[in-house]
Amino acid sequence: MASSSSSSSCSSSSEKKITLKSSDGEALNVEKNVALEFEPAKGFLEDNSEEADDEAIVVPLPNVSAAVLSELIPYVKQRLELSAKPVQKKLIKAFDDQFTRHLSDDKLGELMLAANYLGVNYLLDVLCDVTADRIKNKSVEYVREFLGIQNDFTPEEEAELRAQCPWAFEGVDQD
Amino acid sequence: MAAEEPTLIFRSNSYPKSSKNSQTENISHRAAAILLHSMAAPDEALLSRRSWSSDLPVELLFGIFQKLTDCNDISQCAAVCLSWRSVIRNFYRQLKSLQSPFLLLESSSASYLVRSRCSCTLFNPQTHERHEIFLPQLKESTSTWSSYDGWLLVLPFSMLKNLCLLNPFTRDRIKLPPHLIEFDSDEGPDMIRVLASTSPLDPECVFFLFENGNLFICRPGDKSWTKVVINNTSHKHYRCCGDTICFKGEFYAEYECRIYHIKLNGSGVAEAIKLPVPYIAYGSASDNYLVELNGELLLVQTLTGHRILENCSSASASDVHVFRLDWHRKLWIEVKNIGPTAILLRNHGSTTLDVANFGGYFKPNCIYYVDGYKQELVVYNLETNHSETLHQFSSYWGNTLPDWLRVESAKIMASKHDQIDDVAPWPIIEEHFVKVLDKVAEKGLLTLTWAEERAWATIDDNIFEEFGKRYTVSKLKSKYDHFRTLHHEFSKLLAHSGMVWDPKTNIVRADEEVWESYVKKHPFGKRFKSKGFEYYHLLGEIIAYTQSSQFYNTKIGLKIRGVSDAANVYFEIKGAKTSTFPGGNEEFRRQEHHPSIEECIKILEAMDDLDDNIHVKAREKFISIDWRRMFVAMSEAKKRNWLYSLTCKSPRWRY
């Protein structure tokens, strides 16, 4: 899949490029159609549409780091190419699966926050799916550990919860 | 953790060829550098990992919960932490996994001699999975069937105890007056049924209790059931009834195709009106169900297994008939199409579903029911006149048929009792809570042992009145403790050079390096990266108040004055509960004002009989704008207390 994308990115390189500026100050060049997938960038470009030279526009994305953007951009690009063709939903799903399968928990979270901020809803949907999958059938302790959530219940409340739904604490799957 | 590191490397390699552009190559170098860095310091990775989920906005959390299809998972998530719990509690009606109907297979009533288990078993027809929900509320009682979508009727073993309705998903409980139940009669407790005219949470709901032909009604808050005297008792048939339904707020009973409308005439007198008799397809061989659909009264006849065997040797092509009552012509008209709706049949309150809301599992124009004889879940398609077995149950469930149980539908959610059980999201309550706390602390109530508990109870009451939710005193106290920790951490952060906090936008600005080094030293501070602590000033005030009044009460020995002062204030709060909060804006305006050092010194100079030591200490404090603001905001007496407290050597005063 990677090889096919590289060839197509060559063909689309004639398109207009937009520069995105990440939270850590990196500038990334992307095709305009990719940039338009990001809500804040889209709004920014619409506001500055009178500027003749797109190359000159630098869109600041102060809530996303370069590391995350560099993950997102190839995904969005390929996803756009896929959805432009009359391909089956299965293929898109396979592509999404491949993208998310090896994401670390950390990356998953960062991507989710970024996708939420950038308004990339199809990615957000996929990521929510993956997160739900990862906390499914797990014990409460595992979920807390997985997401790094502090347990803010008082010991009495916790005891009450345990009494009400003991299975929740037993961990259905092997963690 | 160890298992994840290799996957990180794998990720970084998976898209290296995506662009030949040197810029992106740069980035992948950078990404690799970051990854290497995180590998070199695994603790770092662990720390950073501790944070992202706490930043998840509510809509994302909700998005994740939407994906969970199993109610077990939902209850697990509800046990993870307070904010998750509140998200689930507030939005549970919109959660798809809970919206789809369940079959209630059994509750602890399986045998009411076995009293140890307090649970009910639900069957999800979509996944064919069973779930057991533990319900400690069922202790010493038995629950029969649902009386309204998603509500179980709980019958206590003891005759003196109240009946109650229990929502197993939310564990909301509604007490009904006690009713004498005879468990040893042959029929068992099954003969009692309680119907609700609307959602039991609706204050205008009417509850009907029907037992052996006697009808009782009560409304929320009644202490006892009112017996309804039925005038024309010539029709005795409704006594041993088949199905019952609450249709447009009134009670209907059916027995072998004779249908009665029990019409209430004012106070406790009713009339049994006989409705037309429909065409009887199978005579007494059919099971009849009354159904409400789009404001019309329907009668659904099914021919269940044992009756087919007994009466008709070969089951006819059409097992199910649906009739609609034409009120004007007084006729039952057979209906062949019920549109994009599925009917779930059950005794005493069948429900209808708009299939569009249930992701394709429930088919339009279909009727779902449980065949008690064959122990099967059956779907009957009105269009094709074809029935299909969806699930074969193995266990025997005794007298009571499985019952559909579902979370109250969206239709009900939109009605007026919304305010009763829909709670504002925690951030709004939080803001309110901090403001009330500030008011209470200002009066010094939080430091007086005798007043403290009452003050907390007042706060709890206040939140309950504003938002209709009880957090309990212990929870509020722990929330306050949590805030204090946050305040402490945040003030540490602000003291760090290079950190600038804008209270208006609640964003802390600092260079990336400053952040990095700070977070390394204080991992707790990471949470302030995306958002500061918005109640920093208010909380600072609260803490200052509690500390200064502690000083006030203990060191100077003006205990008595403090107590009477506090008592006055306590009643003032009680009386002015509703008027307290609109004033919140004023507080903000006051915060907008930034008193200068000169102003503060002027005030200080105006206060005579302060020793020089205090002046020195106070001037030190005035360097901070926060202290200046607090100082100006304090009352004369509190200013004094605070000033005295500055000279106190106890470490408690410094934070």
Provide a compact summary of the structure.
Chain A is mainly alpha-helical and 175 residues long. Chain A is built from ten helices and three strands; from the N terminus they run αββααβααααααα. Chain B is α+β, with helices and mostly antiparallel strands and 655 residues long.
Report on the structure:
The complex is a heterodimer of chains A (175) and B (655). Chain A has helices spanning 2-11, 32-35, 39-47, 66-84, 89-101, 105-118, 121-135, 140-147, 155-164, 167-170, and strands spanning 17-21, 27-31, 58-60. Chain A is mainly alpha-helical and 175 residues long. In chain A, strands 2-1-3 form a 3-stranded mixed beta sheet. In chain A, a hairpin with a 5-residue loop joins strand 1 and strand 2. The longest helix of chain A is centred in the middle third of the chain and has 19 residues, at 66-84. Chain B has 3 domains: 50-99, Monooxygenase (Up-down Bundle); 100-413, Neuraminidase, CATH 2.120.10; 423-592, no CATH class. In chain B, the strands form 6 sheets. Chain B has an 8-stranded mixed beta sheet, with no helix packed on it. In chain B, helix 4 crosses helix 6 (82-91) and helix 11 (426-442) packs antiparallel against helix 12 (449-467). The radius of gyration of chain B is 33 Å and the shape is elongated. The two termini of chain B are 36 Å apart. The chains are: A mainly alpha (175), B alpha+beta (655).
